[in-house]
Amino acid sequence: MSTHSSRIAARIMVAPSVALLLLWMVVPLVMTLYYSFRLYRLLSPDRTGWAGMRNYTWFFQSPDFWLAMGNTLALVGGVLVITVVLGTLIALLIDQPVWGQGVLRILVIAPFFVMPPVAASILENLFMHPQNGLFAAVSMALGYEPILYLQDYPMWSVIAIVSWEWLPFATLILLTALQSLSSEQIEAAEMDGASAFGRFRYIILPHMMRAITVVILIQTIFLLGIFGEIYTTTQGGPGSASTTLPYMIFKQAIVAKDIGRAAAGGIIAVILANIVAFFLMRGIGKHLDT
């Protein structure tokens, strides 16, 4: 049993790490907040001073901002639906005893270890390319014109690319949950005459809800910051058709050289991410306690 002195000693030993972690998070946030109220453009360094709320009002009055917000929510929602549904189906499939099951599982989760820009390049050039891609070859073999995926359906293409990257993660988590399900429950339901859909609806799915919740929470946090896939494939275009909020902030910081507006966009993104996380935790976090 720990004594009072041992607890104090433990807190003293942990304190430097906690202080360093706070500095690691607080200093960049405070600097971003400071520059969000400043007039700071690298192309006109002589123009400085306080900008007040102008950097924030520019974002809210820009048509691209609301388009970027819609694209960000479409990206997060689309990828979550695809990865959870397909991840559940694939987990059910590869959980069955088949020859080469170990190798099959490794192949299923392999895309998750590919770096995002590399994965985006693979899908762009090997699958979606209008001349040399696999999809173009299939379309021409069937007598149809190749589809310009990144030009005609840029946001759907980005959602497909990101879903391909995150599907192995969802499959791995859901497969782990599926393997912890007692086979005796399934066998008892089969003996009682329950159909395959009934066993999935009333036994398997409730058992997997906690894992699905974990997948949604973790993926949402990372999907709100997706950038590399868009930069590699569409660069936010055509126009602003596939621009998300992180990519819009990037364009203000790197292309427009406007650090003040980019900092304001960063603060807006942090606030929105916390709002989404709050409602997610309240809405579906209750499954973690059951």
UniProtKB/TrEMBL annotation:
<feature type="transmembrane region" description="Helical">
    <location>
        <begin position="106"/>
        <end position="123"/>
    </location>
</feature>
<feature type="domain" description="ABC transmembrane type-1">
    <location>
        <begin position="69"/>
        <end position="280"/>
    </location>
</feature>
<feature type="transmembrane region" description="Helical">
    <location>
        <begin position="12"/>
        <end position="37"/>
    </location>
</feature>
<protein>
    <submittedName>
        <fullName>Sugar ABC transporter permease</fullName>
    </submittedName>
</protein>
<keyword id="KW-1133">Transmembrane helix</keyword>
<comment type="similarity">
    <text>Belongs to the binding-protein-dependent transport system permease family.</text>
</comment>
<keyword id="KW-0813">Transport</keyword>
<dbReference type="InterPro" id="IPR035906">
    <property type="entry name" value="MetI-like_sf"/>
</dbReference>
<feature type="transmembrane region" description="Helical">
    <location>
        <begin position="262"/>
        <end position="281"/>
    </location>
</feature>
<dbReference type="GO" id="GO:0055085">
    <property type="term" value="P:transmembrane transport"/>
</dbReference>
<keyword id="KW-0472">Membrane</keyword>
<dbReference type="Pfam" id="PF00528">
    <property type="entry name" value="BPD_transp_1"/>
</dbReference>
<dbReference type="GO" id="GO:0005886">
    <property type="term" value="C:plasma membrane"/>
</dbReference>
<feature type="transmembrane region" description="Helical">
    <location>
        <begin position="65"/>
        <end position="94"/>
    </location>
</feature>
<dbReference type="InterPro" id="IPR000515">
    <property type="entry name" value="MetI-like"/>
</dbReference>
<keyword id="KW-0812">Transmembrane</keyword>
<feature type="transmembrane region" description="Helical">
    <location>
        <begin position="211"/>
        <end position="231"/>
    </location>
</feature>
<feature type="transmembrane region" description="Helical">
    <location>
        <begin position="155"/>
        <end position="178"/>
    </location>
</feature>
<keyword id="KW-1003">Cell membrane</keyword>
